[in-house]
Amino acid sequence: MSENKDLQGAEPGTRVEDVKFVYDFTEGNKDLKDLLGGKGANLAEMTNLGLPVPPGFTITTEACKVYLDSGDEPAALRDEVSAHLDALEAQMGKKLGRPDNPLLVSVRSGAKFSMPGMMDTVLNIGLSDQSVKGLADQAGDERFAWDSYRRLIQMFGKTVLGVDGDLFEEALEKAKAAKKVTVDTELEAADLKKLVATFKKIVRKEAGRDFPQDPREQMDLAIHAVFDSWNTDRAKLYRRQERIPHDLGTAVNVCTMVFGNLGPDSGTGVAFTRDPASGHQGVYGDYLQNAQGEDVVAGIRNTVPLAELESIDKKSYDRLMQIMATLENHYKDLCDIEFTIERGRLWMLQTRVGKRTAGAAFRIATQLVDQGLIDEAEALTRVNGAQLAQLMFPRFDDEAKVAQAGRGIAASPGAAVGKAVFDSYTAVKWSRSGEKVILIRRETNPDDLDGMIAAEGILTSRGGKTSHAAVVARGMGKTCVCGAEELEVDTKRRRMTVPGGQVVEEGDIVSIDGSSGKVYLGEVPVVPSPVVEYFEGRMHPGADDADELVEAVHRMMAFADRKRRLRVRANADNAEDALRARRFGAQGIGLCRTEHMFLGDRRGLVERLILADTETDREESLKELLPLQKRDFVELFEAMDGLPVTVRLLDPPLHEFLPDITELSVRVALAESRQEPHENELRLLQAVHRLHEQNPMLGLRGVRLGLVIPGLFTMQVRAIAQAAAERKAAKADPRAEIMIPLVGTVQELELVRDEAAQVIAEVEAATGTKLKLSIGTMIELPRAALTAGQLAEAAEFFSFGTNDLTQTVWGFSRDDVEASFFTAYLEKGIFGVSPFETIDRDGVGSLVAAAARAGRATRPDLKLGVCGEHGGDPESVHFFHEVGLDYVSCSPFRIPVARLEAGRAAVRAEGSDHR
């Protein structure tokens, strides 16, 4: 491989051998995340700010890409690493792994986007049977040196050599049992020497080779292991879940080791500049004395709150507070910080913009605006529709009389109820069978990701707000309670014991509240979210915590409404849904499905229409339906007075209004066997057989119905026109739009439009009322999109029906494919997300864009909207803004999400224009 035009930081055509693959921490900055990964870019930024960062260097994501593409590292990489290592050794006055004065380094992953715990890290690189003695002399602490060595072998064995990590854990537990201690810090140097020997035997047996004693070999193998970890199953699963591209690769950070396991005056911790769960300002984080960083995030020992560091080491605490303030002001956001204290000296190991809960995101965005750190436009980029949707989920009823089993740390909010399961495999298996589950573990690790995704919520008995479970759950928006120490979790026996001795077996129902940390036995009832109550007009900004959140949401929605160009309408079929949609901020109805008006007690009238043998019978049936339809529209226009209401004429196949063929056949057979009258059932059965189609979604439906069943569409148009005339007579402002579905050719549209225009004229003449009813069509067939220029000659508006358009473009039957093979397609990475959930930009999206251009070329004032489910999907809303649609339409509950994302889309577009 000699050339790659995608190499970051290089001119097109640059040869791989001429590219710089290694950067010192002094050479980068926070804007180089594509090249240096998030961790490397931020280490460089902190170094530039003069903060205490251990010296080191970063191997770029481009080196990783070359390695993954070719199976080997770039030819120049080894020499570049050697040059930077030589400089690092000179700076530190030590040599990597030298017996008398060893330099030790960590090798850590660092992709552009944070993927907590998904990729590999190895600490204490450079330790060997010889250098461990030098480290002991250097530190004046033999126990520390052997503890560091056993950690290296354990981490290296699992991460680099693929040894089962449980084997090391079991050996460690045996060593503690033999010593009759409960935590590893109570093991002495002699115990740890024995443990090192045991660990080396495990490596030799399981890996088929000895633990490498050459420090450079350790480092090179660790670098390759980090590269390889980009493509582990758990990393790929996490990227699919978070919609992170698979082709980014990871950087590798080689950093001088600083040690938090040098005794009680040392330690490691994680700090947040604000509470990632609530967004409140204060001192938030975890600290663990005499430990290395992995101990904190792994949750293997329970930490103390960060505030306690003030009494443990006030000098380091004060310096940390200063640095935290510096970083938050510099990044203008919540920062997540990893630090180590080595014998009273503070070192910064990482910072990044911290993951936060949905509520915290809204609070923090408004707080930063108030502090003058960001403006309203930037605030909109700090929140998103998925977070707003989370805030609209129900919460537990505080008044419910349900037994509380315990309480842990509120790590990620939400109200989750499900059956207790104690391993990821069971969580996935039961979830796929339709069961809701709560994954219960002592602590989670990256191998639990499958189960965490499948579960409604996660409960751990160990760890804090910075543990693996907490960080990953917050990133996924999953309910999580951590560190519930009073709960005794026994994963082998698949049970949990609560205070008082009651046992929760696998399959028992538990409820967890990620907002309070409470754990309940049984199912807790839920009540509406305060955010939904706000949108419903039942809650107003106030002083308590719930109202504080409502205030933040209210302000962000106001920001979005001021910025957005896209209008947001509702998909609503009755006055009740229309009124709710209006309270949620809908600016009209983008889709009224008239077929829903033919169900219930009206089904019999439709059956009579279908069974009509003569024109007179058919007209009589339509005559009976007309006043019912008119009343529906009067109510709808009243609810949406002054706002547009797009009414879609009857769309589905007629067989959907008839009884099920199997059920009807049984009824006819039973009646015949009992010699009972069954003439009507027999006629219905004959009609069902007559209307049966192999593929009804591509058969007699939509505009085709209106053209082959005389009077059907004209009855509906008459009802719409009469309802509009009645509302106008009441001094109201009805704004009806008539939408013709499933059009494939302009001739269909012209025929129905002309009939509709005649009916409207008749109603105007009869009522003496001038009506302005626009007529348009639904673009839901590829041919309609491809001939949009012709259709625009006969249509005043287009509404893209992206549900059917996705089906017809892909050749998918949604009712079948989602259950049959979509799961496999998502797992194999064929889909990043279902095309029915987020619009397929390349296929369906290109047709939408082309149709919009062609339609407006014919009719510049053509109104363009979308009424498929994509209208409420955050990512799709951004696409519809980009291609110039006028509005999106979605279900009432998703209207706030669409409003917010429409504002964010406008801000993003402004940012692109400025660039």
From TrEMBL:
Catalyses which reaction(s): pyruvate + phosphate + ATP = phosphoenolpyruvate + AMP + diphosphate + H(+)
Residue ranges of every copy of the PEP-utilising enzyme C-terminal domain listed in the record: 551-903
Keyword Kinase tagged: yes
Residues covered by the PEP-utilising enzyme mobile domain: 435-517
Coiled coil feature spans: none
Keywords from the named record: ATP-binding, Kinase, Magnesium, Metal-binding, Nucleotide-binding, Pyruvate, Transferase
Cofactor(s) needed: Mg(2+)
Source superkingdom: Bacteria
Keyword Metal-binding in record: yes
PROSITE patterns referenced in this protein's UniProt entry, alphabetically: PEP_ENZYMES_PHOS_SITE (PS00370)
E.C. number: 2.7.9.1
Segments forming domain Pyruvate phosphate dikinase AMP/ATP-binding: 75-302, 308-359
Protein family: Belongs to the PEP-utilizing enzyme family.
PANTHER family, per the entry: PHOSPHOENOLPYRUVATE DIKINASE-RELATED, PYRUVATE, PHOSPHATE DIKINASE 1, CHLOROPLASTIC
Full protein name: Pyruvate, phosphate dikinase
Gene: ppdK
